[in-house]
Amino acid sequence: MKVCFGNSCRNLMEREQRVTGNTDFADILSQKARTSSGKAGTAADLFRTKTEIPYLTYGNYSSKRSNINAETENYEISQDKESGTITVYDKKAETKIVVRSAEDLVVQKDMETGTKVLIRDFGNGFYTVVRVTDELEGALKQALDTDVLREKELTGFKIHTDQKTGIRYITANGYEGRGGLLLMDDTGRAKLMNLAEKYMSQYPQLVDSIDEAIMFAAFEVCGIARRTENGIVSLGPNSLSFYHKNGIDSWKILFDEKKYELFRQIWDRKKNDAAADVERKEYWEAR
Predict the structure, then answer these.
(1) Which of 226, 250, 247, 249 is nearest to 236 (CA)?
(2) For the chain, first and last CA: distance in Å?
(3) Are 235 and 264 spatial neighbours (Cβ–Cβ below 8 Å)?
(4) How far apart are CA 253 and CA 284, in angstroms?
(5) pLDDT in tens, 90-122
(6) Exposed, middle or buried: residue 134 (CB in 10 Å: 0-12, 13-18, 19+)?
(7) Which among 74, 184, 219, 224 could bridge 188 via Cys, Cβ 3.0 to 4.6 Å?
(8) Cα separation of 46 and 15, whole Å?
(9) Are 221 and 213 in contact (CB under 8 A)?
(10) Cα 47-53-58 angle, rounded to 5 deg
(11) How far, in Å, CA of 120 to CA of 105, rounded?
(12) Got the DSSP string for 158-198?
């Protein structure tokens, strides 16, 4: 089943606008939607520059190969004939990165968890990522015609592990308020689906599609959404929203993005407390 996070972000964006008429957080969600799922996305358009590719240079290794392609059960690596950009696509996760050249295919490793990723960093907290497995490593070596991949320690990002589900996710340093991207295997996908089903059963009038349920579940895994008896509380980079389970009695407050850390500290302190306070707009406005 394909999960379209782009549509889910647009649905949430429309709900944000209905609550207050403000578009600040909606603008961020819109940017996420434009760079989210789908094999044929707009990311490649960022690199539509005609280039000549007489040979492949990868690290200290050169090959006469000018056409970089490989496909396995779960991954596809392809090169655009006009621009020379390379796409690495994860079929199961439906995530991808698009890079300018083979030199940009650098595997980054988180030393704490051992997780490996490929990242395309667009700056300002926006990025795409593909989790690197043994299968993908093999596909990359085949596509690049090399025995060794370039690898370095992960920098500028942090990999977290959700305590409840065990699902790992990645955030950009300094932009944690914008959430993270999930790094899942089959077990993680099953756990995320189970959490999404809880959203649909708990809030049938609020969450009306499986895509939206998965999006809220992903937000919860990343620590920026919380279920309460009466709805869902969501923390953004400059806002805090409450979506009432009846789909009507919702609210939102805005704050200077510089105060995010203050709100985050309160948010983290309250995560194990009764939900009554976090549902009340007055509680947050007093901060």
Answers:
(1) 226
(2) 42
(3) yes
(4) 8
(5) 999 999 999 999 999 999 999 999 999 999 999
(6) exposed
(7) 184
(8) 29
(9) no
(10) 90
(11) 9
(12) EEEE-TTT--EEEEETT-GGG--EEE--HHHHHHHHHHHHH
Task: Please give the DSSP secondary-structure letter assigned to residue 36.
Answer: S
- Check residue 81 and report its DSSP letter: T
Rg (CA), the chain: 20
State the Cα–Cα distance between residues 118 and 20, nearest whole angstrom: 38
Sketch the domain layout of the chain as residue ranges: 70-155, 186-283
Q: Is the pLDDT of residue 27 over 90?
A: no
Whole-angstrom distance, CA of residue 268 vs CA of residue 273: 10
Q: What is the pLDDT of residues 150-199, one digit of tens each?
A: 999 999 999 999 999 999 999 999 998 888 999 999 999 999 999 999 99
pLDDT of residue 76: 98
Provide the sign of the torsion angle of the four alpha carbons 206, 211, 213, 217, taken in this order: negative
From CA 65, how far away is CA 246, in angstroms rounded? 59
Nearest one of 179, 238, 124, 166 to 8, comparing CA atoms? 179
State the Cα–Cα distance between residues 120 and 42, nearest whole angstrom.
Answer: 14
DSSP state of 21: S
Rounded to an integer, what distance in angstroms lies between the CA atom of residue 49 and that of residue 207? 42
The tally of CA atoms less than 13 A away on the side-chain side of residue 284 is 26
Reported in sequence order, the residue ranges of the chain that DSSP labels E, i.e. its strands, are 56-58, 61-63, 70-71, 75-79, 86-90, 95-99, 107-109, 116-123, 126-131, 151-153, 157-161, 168-172, 181-183, 225-227, 231-235, 239-244, 251-254
Rounded distance between C-alpha atoms, residue 5 and residue 34, angstroms: 10
Which residues lie closer than 8 Å to 186 by C-beta, 6 or more apart?
A: 92
